[in-house]
Amino acid sequence: MKKVLLTAINSQFIHSNLAVRYLKAYAKELDLQIKIREFSINDRLERIFEEIMYEKPDIVGFSCYIWNGEYVDKLSNLIKRVDENIQIFYGGPEVSFDCREVLLNSSADFLIEGEGEESFKEFLKWKLENGFDRKDLKIKGVYSKCQNQILYGGQREALDMNLLEFPYNEEDDLSNKIIYYEASRGCPFNCKYCLSSTIRGVRFLNPDRVKRELKFLADKKVKIVKFVDRTFNANPKFAMEIWKYLMELDTETVFHFEITADIVTEDEIELLKNAPKGRFQFEVGVQSTNNEVLKNVNRYIEFKDIKEIVMKLEEGKNINQHLDLIVGLPGEDFNSFKNSFNDVYSIGPEKLQIGFLKLLKGSSMREEAEKWGMSYSPYHPYEILRTKDISFEEISILKRVDSVVDKYYNTGKFDHIVEFLISDFETPFDFYYKLSEYFYHKGYFNRSISASEYYKVFLDFNKEILKKENDVLEEIVKFEYLKFNKKSWLPPFLTRLNVKEEEQAIKEKLKEENKFDKKLHLEKFSIDIDRYITKKEIVYKEMYHIFN
User: Are residues 486 and 354 in the same domain?
Assistant: First the structure.
């Protein structure tokens, strides 16, 4: 039996690949052995190559994205050097817009453009019927390299999503992975930097099917199900039906959605107020709060409308919201981005994610690069280098800001420290900028630093840059450290003040009140720590704090 190896090289180990699973499921009836192998770009190239060759495949398919293009090209070349008879095909968004050029300049024999399920199935059927060695096929959606010619079967029409096979089964090990799910394809908007703008219209799965499949994933105790839908709430009726169903499930699974905030309805807000805490995560693409910049990329929305909806959703304190900004948009200079950052920070989202514009193949943004004075990397992932509005040096500064924001804001492990220090700065951006410059000049971006050093940085920063004493800050740092680390040990730069007799007396009192638990940890502070923490914690006898 002929063997087809579908190969995914993900950006991280925790990620999974939905595309190869769709392909395998859609072609399951064919008399072929179809196997999936998943790796990450953090794996050694030699290891991936050896694993592929160990499978002894007749055909190898690669799922191609901006993060793995270099790996895929190198692996294809190595495969052909060992065995020219192994046929290779590419598919995915990275290769679907300049297909002829990709095929001519790679070791691939075939390329499947766009949605691949039906094209892949027909491609394999043709191979079975006409011989695996032949390449002179003409199938819709497929490019073929045959005797130095490129054959093309023409564009394939969009697939009815309800014809797709559910890509997961009982045998799949879905633990410790982000599991991706797709309830719709397409996007109603036309943002210039996004590939979804190249496909008109939105197609949906039948909602009853979506419920069944999500129940399967919840029953498998998947930790996170991440919807790949570009705008999950494009159809309010559909979104509300799925949300309501998930709210009623008895599950610990978290469901992550990309939504457009300004089209969220009052009915949706009322419904979502009753969602179990932590059941949903919303990713909201703000990109910029400069309305003129947004118009330059075909986003005709205003930040005040986004803010209003995000703040209403925040009232319930039950949904984690991740708000996105993009550096390098046309018309946005450094100061404009700084304002965007401060605007979004003022909302207090659970995560503030900074991305850097990527000029993707097929996007209209790439076509307008010259108009906006954009210079971008010709290599994957085609990231912006400079524009006529923002310099390379300024983008480099914002990359450093992104690093400290991701560590010190998005993890949620330093909130009270940041809140204490940030008041010394005119704006939140100024704080993160100054901290990132401190990191840069100390060389912390160029080496690994320990978990405890990330806390010590604040004490050094406060003394060296702000020229302030650390007596209060040290206690706040100690509080944050103990919340998220082993209570039995403190790093040398923090001082333990506990008195054994006092501890024992408090424990005896707790026992009398039936509040004692062996897992509780008592810590003494030199200040009334309750004054410096925003969320009320259990404090006992002023200076002692009980950590659960």
Answer: no
